[in-house]
Design goal:
The protein is mainly alpha-helical and 118 residues long. Strands 1-3-2 form a 3-stranded antiparallel β-sheet. It starts with 9 loop residues before the first helix and ends with a helix. GO terms for molecular function: DNA binding. Keywords: Coiled coil, DNA-binding, Transcription, Transcription regulation. This is DNA-binding GntR family transcriptional regulator.
Length: 118
């Protein structure tokens, strides 16, 4: 069986293309990327392939998916992993960062909902 991380896989090519845009700053934290269907159409792949690419980007820390709102570039680019063990304080800092991101997103949603109601 072929390794799913092989660069030639269509989902991997798509994921790498989007990740490169994030790394170059073409896509910035908080930017919304196209839907799975739109990505599939734009890059000429199936929706299943685009979905797999989005999952890979999520797993790699490049994007986050918010149900009902879309796919967004993550707040921070993923750090290069090392063989060094992760400390509890590192985990706690990351959890704090994620909580701040969730709070900020919640505030954005509330603002959008209140503007729709008005």
């Amino acid at each position: 069986m072929e390794n799913s991380r092989t660069p030639g896989h269509p989902f991997r090519v798509l994921a790498d293309t989007i990740a490169a845009k994030v790394q170059r700053g073409e896509l910035k934290p908080g930017d919304q990327i196209p839907s799975v269907r739109a990505l599939a159409k734009e890059y000429g792949v199936t929706t299943a392939t685009a979905q797999k690419a989005v999952k890979q980007l999520t797993d790699d820390g490049y994007v986050t998916t918010v149900q009902g709102l879309g796919i967004f570039v993550a707040d921070a680019a993923p750090e290069v992993t090392t063989d060094q063990p992760v400390s509890l304080s590192d985990v706690m800092r990351e959890l704090d960062r994620l909580q701040e991101a969730v709070t900020a997103l919640d505030q954005r949603v509330q603002r959008l909902e209140s503007s729709d109601a008005g």
